[in-house]
Amino acid sequence: MALAGALSAGREWWLISNWTELKAYIRADLASMGVRAGLKTWFLDPVARLIILMRCNEYLLNTGKPRLLRLPVLFWFRRLSVRLGFSLGPNIFGPGVAIVHHGLLVIDPTTRIGRNCRIHMGAHIGGAAQFCEPGEEHKFSPRIGDNVYIGPGAKIYGPVRIGDNCTIGANAVVTRSFPEAGLTLAGVPAKIIAQGGTGERVLKGASIS
C-alpha cells in the first residue's frame, strides 16, 4: 500500500518497533540532513542530536521499555526541544526527516508525516491534539505523504491530506487537502501554483519501496 493511502486510512505502520529499525531510522534521518554519523555531529549539531534523542525516545516508548529507562531520554529530549524552540511529540515523522534549522517549530502530536520530509523553521502544523478519542486522530489531524518539502513559516491546519512529492512554499497557509502527488502550493490560503514534485529540495535518506 502506498504511504498516502495508508495515512488516509489512519494506518501508522512506520513506528519504530525494534533496535534494527531504530538504527535504520537514525541513518536515514542523518542522510536526509546531509550530515555524517559520529561524535562531531553529536556534539556540534544540536538539531541532529535532538533527532537522535527523538528516535531513541520513540523506540523506548513503542517497545514498552520500563519508564525509569525512558525518563532520562525523554527529559533530555524535551530540554533540548525547548532550547531549540521545537514542540514535537513522538512518532510524527517517518524515516528520513530533515529539520533544517533550529527555531520555532510547532507540530501537533497527532500529525503524521511520511518519509523524507524536509521542514524549515517557523512551520506550524496543527490538528486535534488530545481533543479526540484514541484511534480517531486521523480524522482531525494533518496527514502528509512522502518526500514533502515544507518551507519556512508554512502553516498546515486541520484534517488535511497532502500527497507525495509536494512542495509547500514559505508562509503558505494550507487549510484544505491536496492529495495529488507532485504539487507546489503557495499563498494564503494555499493554492496550486505548479506541478512537478520536490526535485532536489529533498534529500531522500529513506528509500521508497
From TrEMBL:
Keywords: Acyltransferase, Transferase. GO terms for molecular function: acyltransferase activity. This is Serine O-acetyltransferase. It comes from Allosphingosinicella indica. The keyword NADP does not apply. Belongs to the transferase hexapeptide repeat family. The keyword Acyltransferase applies.
